[in-house]
Amino acid sequence: MTHTYFVTGMTCSSCLAKVKGLLSKVSGVKNVHIDLAKAEALIDMEWHIPIADFKKALKDYPKYQLSESNYHHFAALPEENEETKSWLETYKPILLIFGYITGITLLTEWAQGEFLWIRWMNHFMAGFFLVFSFFKLLNLRGFAESYCMYDIIAKKWNGWGYVYAFAELALGIVFLTGIHPILTNIVTFVIMTVSIVGVLQSVLNKKKIKCACLGDVFNLPMSSITIIEDALMIGMSGITLATMF
Fold first, then answer.
1. Which pLDDT does position 10 carry in this prediction?
2. Per-residue pLDDT at 76
3. Domains defined for the chain, CATH in brackets
4. Is the Cβ–Cβ distance between 143 and 132 less than 8 Å?
C-alpha cells in the first residue's frame, strides 16, 4: 500500500536526502519518494504504518514536520501565510533596513558638509553588506540550506552559502574602510551578477521559494524586491568602477 504525506521544513536536496533516509528506516517501509517542490512524501509500505512511527523517525530533526496529505491545503505553509499579508506587511523588515541604511548614510554625507555620490554609495554598500551578512550569520546553516534552493552555484556546491555570508561581511568591511576600492567593486559586481541569475530564474518561473537575503530570520518570499536588491548593488559597483577608469 502507498500513502502520501506532507512534509514541511525541507529547503534543499540535502534536506530531501535526510528525510528520505530517516523515513526509509521505519520498519515496513519499502520505498520513499519525495517531491521537494510539493513538499510531499510518497511512501510505499508493506502494511499500514501509523503516522506516529514516521513522526518518531523525524523527532531528532524538529524542523521537519510530517502530516497527513489531506491536511495539505490547511497546513501552515510559509508561502500561504505570506499570501494573507499585505505587500507592506510582508516586506516591512527589508523596507525598514533599507530606510535605516539610506538615512544613516545620508546623515553621514550631511555631516561632511558636502554630498559626494561615490562616497555615499560606498557607505551605502558597506551598510547593506554588513547588515545583510549579520542576519545570515544568525543562522548560517539555515541560510545555506535556503540559498541552495535557487542560487546557481549553491545548487552545485552547498558550501557556497557559507562562503557567501562571510564574503558579504568582508565586502561590508572593505567598503567601509576604503581598502582596494577597484578590487572591491569588481568582486561585488561579479558576485552580485552571479547571485541575480538564480533570483531571476526563480521569479520568472514563479517558484514559491523563500528569499534568503535576510538569512533564516525573516520569511520573505522571492520576488522583484530581491531582484532590485541585487541589481542595486550591481549598479552601484558598476558606476563606481566607471568613475575609476
1. 84
2. 39
3. 2-76 (3.30.70.100), 80-244 (no CATH)
4. no
User: Under a CB-based contact definition with an 8 Å cutoff, are residues 214 and 198 in contact?
Assistant: no
- pLDDT for 69 equals 59
Handedness of CA 27, 59, 211, 135 (dihedral sign): negative
Q: Is the pTM of this model over 0.85?
A: no
Q: Which residue in this structure is represented by grid cell 558550501?
A: 159
Predicted local confidence at residue 84, as pLDDT: 60
- Report the 3 state secondary structure along 126-148: HHHHHHHHHHHHHCHHHHHHHHC
The pLDDT value given to residue 13: 75
User: Going by DSSP bridges, is the β-strand pair 220-221/210-211 parallel, antiparallel, or unpaired?
Assistant: antiparallel
Which cell numbers hold the place of 109? Answer: 554625507
Residue with cell 549579520: 134
175 phi, psi to nearest 5 deg: -65, -35
Beta bridge partners of 33: 42
Alpha-carbon distances of 7 from 28, 38, 75, 222, rounded to whole Å: 19, 9, 10, 21
Half-sphere CA count of 200, side-chain side, radius 13 A = 8
| DSSP assignment letter at 62 | T
pLDDT along the chain (245 residues), means of 10: 85 82 92 87 88 90 79 40 68 92 96 93 97 93 82 90 96 95 96 94 77 77 84 96 91
What's the rounded Cα separation, in Å, for the pair 40 and 164? 30
Comparing C-alpha atoms, which of 44, 35, 31, 42 is closest to residue 15?
35
